[in-house]
Amino acid sequence: MSEQEAADAAASAAAPRKRAAAKKATATAKKTAQAEKAPTGKKTAAAKKSPAGQTAAKKTAGKKAAAKKATAKKAPAKKTAVAAKKATAAKKVPAKKTPGGKPESRESRAKRAARLNEALAEVYYYAHPELDFENPFELLVATVLSAQTTDLRVNQTTPALFAAYPTPEDMAAANPEELEELIRPTGFFRSKAKSLLGLSAALRDDHGGKVPGTIDELVKLPGVGRKTAFVVLGNAFGVPGLTVDTHFGRLVRRWKLTEQTDAVKVEQEIDDLLPESEWTMFSHRTIFHGRRICHSRKPACGACPIAELCPSYGEGETDPEKAKKLLKYEMGGQPGQRLKPPADYPGRPAPPLPSRDPATEPPAGQSADAAAGAQR
Ligand code: SF4
CA–CA separation, 214 vs 49, rounded Å? Predict the structure, then answer.
């Protein structure tokens, strides 16, 4: 073998070793490359598996759960608040809202008050103070006596009383026991006698034996409140004023003109709805209606001539025939009978003249109630 042939043979023998070495180098390079890439992935995997990682993950999960719980806890609270609001609103609705279901404006109530007043004026054209009196002193005394009793009972009692004590001076000097005996039928006679003696003495000593004509002076008299004062002012002096007695308060609340139960607040709210010129007569008409038809326990809705204007229709008997049996004519005894008006004197508004003959025609109330009953 030549030198050249020997070199070629050696090279051929070395080639497989070189290839093996190159393969090994490539594998090592791959491993290195993998080893270089591996740390991130391994770390992540390790982090996931490590206790620290688990704690962090748990913390995150815990936070999420807490947030969920918080949300879950808050949600019912919101619902409760809304429910509470609704409940509160529901409680207020009946008192505050009109039959239409919407809060009623003052203007709307004023319009309804005017319509009610007109309708009442038509029905009770003969409305007037039902206490008999000849002068302001008698009206003052009669009004004090009318507390907790009927005007009829007072009118049956006062003739003898006024005959015995015609002036404040006479009454102030009365024997208390004799005075008590005279007014006994009106009830609460001891406290009423005390009031009459006190107010008579005050009239004698402080007002020259005359009844004063202002609200401030009247309410300072013993036994005289705003109701009594306005009765005297409106009917003895022609000074407009509302008489807020039990009938008046009940009816204006049924008509939803006010929600107030305090007499002074009722007076203020109704004052605001009607012109001053109507105050006194609106009181009379309303009280007439309360005594005759719109009773406290059993209002005669089926025989009510103003039923169509009343948001409380149905609070009482709606059957026309049954309702008619509930009507009361406390003073006259006969439906529509015009009562004898008290004697007139300066300042007192004259009773309205009847536009029909009450002796031959049924009262406006009864005609209208039949119509109202038929319509319903
Ligand atoms: S409808 Fe009934 S509640 Fe209304 S005013 Fe007449 S009687 Fe009174």
Answer: 96
Helix (H, G, I), strand (E, B) or coil at 97: strand
Q: What's the distance, CA 236 to chain centroid?
A: 33
User: Does the Cβ of 327 fall within 6 Å of ligand 1?
Assistant: no
Looking at ligand 1, which atom is closest to the CA of residue 300?
Answer: 7
R_g (Cα) of the chain, nearest Å: 47
pLDDT one-digit tens code per residue, 241-255: 999 999 999 999 999
CA of 342 to the centre of ligand 1 (A): 29
Instruction: Quote the CA–CA distance of 249 and 266 in Å, as a whole number.
Output: 7
Other residues' Cβ atoms within 10 Å of the Cβ of residue 291: 17
Q: In terms of Cα–Cα distance, which of 145, 118, 82, 51 is closest to 274?
A: 118
Report whether residue 254 contacts ligand 1, using a CB cutoff of 6 Å.
yes
User: What residue ranges define each of the domains in the chain, with the CATH number in brackets?
Assistant: 108-298 (1.10.340.30)
- Where does residue 257 rank: exposed (0-12), middle (13-18), buried (19+ CB within 10 A)? buried
Amino acid (one-letter) located at 279: W
pLDDT tens digit sequence for 340-360: 333 332 333 333 333 434 444
